[in-house]
Amino acid sequence: MDQLVSKILNNCNAKSSNKLMDSLFHGLILFSIFIFTAILLNSKEGAGSGTLVGFGKIVFFIDSLLLFYILNNLKYLKKIPLMVFCVLLWLAYSPISSFNYIYDIKLFMASVSFSVLWCLMFLYSYIYSTKNRLSLESTKCFFSILFIFNSFIFFKIFFYRNESISIYATINEVYYVLLIVPWLFLIKQSFWRYLALFIATVVVFCSMKRTALVVLVLSYLSFFAIETYLSYGFSKVKRIFVSIFLICIFMVSFAFVAQQTGDYFASRLSTMLSDRGSGRLGIYQQVYELQQNADLIHSVFGHGFNDVSRNLWSEKYQVSLSAHNDFQEVLYDFGYLGLLFYLIFHFSILVKSLSFIKTKKTYASAFFISYLIFLFLSFLSHLIIYPTYFIYLSFFWGSVLGINNRDNINMSYG
Q1: Tell me: the pLDDT tens digits for 256-297?
Q2: Cα separation, 227 vs 218, whole angstroms
Q3: Residues 375-397 pLDDT 10s
Q4: pTM (predicted TM-score)
Q5: Regarding beta strands 319-320 and 313-314, do their DSSP bridges make them parallel or antiparallel, or are they unpaired?
Q6: Cα–Cα distance for residue pair 402/76, rounded to 1 Å
Q7: Is 218 exposed, middle or buried (0-12, 13-18, 19+ CB in 10 A)?
Q8: CA–CA gap between residue 228 and residue 240 (Å, rounded)
Q9: How far apart are CA 22 and CA 69, in angstroms?
Q10: Helix 190-207 crosses helix 135-161 at what angle (to 10 degrees)?
């Protein structure tokens, strides 16, 4: 009897010790994300690809931490959803294209580190959420704090860049705020959720980024539509109230920014067609021509992570350019095989989003919004080569899938 009691106590102590270590490690990962974000946002090229080699050592350190945790918890990757399988597939494949840089070991290591960062973040958050019941709440709290910090830095950048010029600059750092939006939709308290969304809306208007505005509008519309479908008792009065509230958020935000900028953002919206999406159509044509000139090996396996920017130059702005379309970027950087895996990954997220809506999960609307952001930014901007803020989305996907997986396990065992 004494041996049995002793064995039970030892098991309890071991479980408590493991949970404590998990919590400490999780805190270290979240702290690393915060420090990494802070360094990027306060650097001269916060969101730019020019930072990739410079921050390669930091990313390599974070990759090592994540890989260590994943390898020590491989048992949680036995029965996995399609999304997780796709991420594992991408994790195994994406470094292959970086062998084009093997002549420069620093560039090679930086390319591999950045190309796998979002994958490792996804797998880590999936495993951690599967193991820990309250993981989503603590992680949601962290991203809420990060949202406040990123918004503060954004406004600091906004006032600094526009202090002494008559034409307002577009601010790419808006994506450090926009990609946290799915986390904001998980906030249960309506007041804090809508206050955060109001701040996000002001940030988007101040950024002068039309793509960000389109994504945010679609996010709000999707949230209202899905929540209406999910809520059995969603009365007409509440629908009207939520609709008016979301409209007010937009009107107040737009009026505030218009007053501060002299209606500059409105003028950018009116020139959306005439400037051909800030020259995107010309960029797409140039990337298409680059792809047409590729040999068979590079067409199949790609040229290397972020290689479009090494072959595409803007004479107007005197900077290197990305494809501004992740499908073209993936095709050139990772080849036809990479594009196939990337399309399957898109499909897997869409299927999972619709599955959550069908089964009326509480996080269904937030998850669907995360895919909308991913889809439209993939078409109109770039995410895959900027895992700096893409990790916010991948961490979200992994966390939600982990929670869902744990709930399914609990249900299957009664």
Answers
A1: 555 555 555 555 555 555 544 456 788 888 888 888 888 888
A2: 14
A3: 999 988 888 877 789 999 999 99
A4: 0.85
A5: antiparallel
A6: 10
A7: middle
A8: 11
A9: 9
A10: 30
Rounded Cα distance, 367 and 384, in Å: 19
> Among all chains, which residue has been given the structure tokens 């062998």?
99
- Whole-angstrom Cα Rg for the chain: 22
Structure tokens at 370: 């995360």
What six digits make up the tokens of 369?
A: 């919004």
Nearest to 363 by CA among 184, 98, 164, 174: 184
- C-alpha torsion 339→392→119→305, nearest 10: 50
Q: What are phi and psi of 85, to 5 degrees?
A: -60, -40
Using the CB atoms, write b or e for 139-165: b if 16+ within 10 Å.
bbebbbebbebbbebbeebbeeebeee
Neighbouring C-beta atoms of residue 92, cutoff 10 Å: 12
Q: State the DSSP H helix or E strand holding residue 262, giving kind and residue range, or none if neither.
A: none
pLDDT digits (tens, 9 = 90+) for 56-69: 778 889 999 999 99
Tokens of 255: 């009026």
The dihedral through the CA atoms of 222, 225, 228, 230 has a sign that is: negative
Going from the C-alpha of 392 to that of each of 12, 50, 209, 264, 377, the distances in angstroms are: 34, 20, 19, 30, 14
In angstroms, the CA 157 to CA 413 distance is: 52
Q: Hey, what are 236's tokens?
A: 């007409």
Short-list 183, 211, 223, 215, CA closest to 368: 223
Q: Could you tell me where the DSSP H helices lie in 208-325?
A: 210-230, 236-261, 264-270, 276-292, 296-301
Cβ distance 66 to 123 under 8 Å? yes
Cα distances (Å, whole numbers) of residue 222 to 185, 205, 226, 372: 11, 20, 6, 9
Helix (H) or strand (E) holding 381: none
Distance CA 125, CA 66 (A): 9
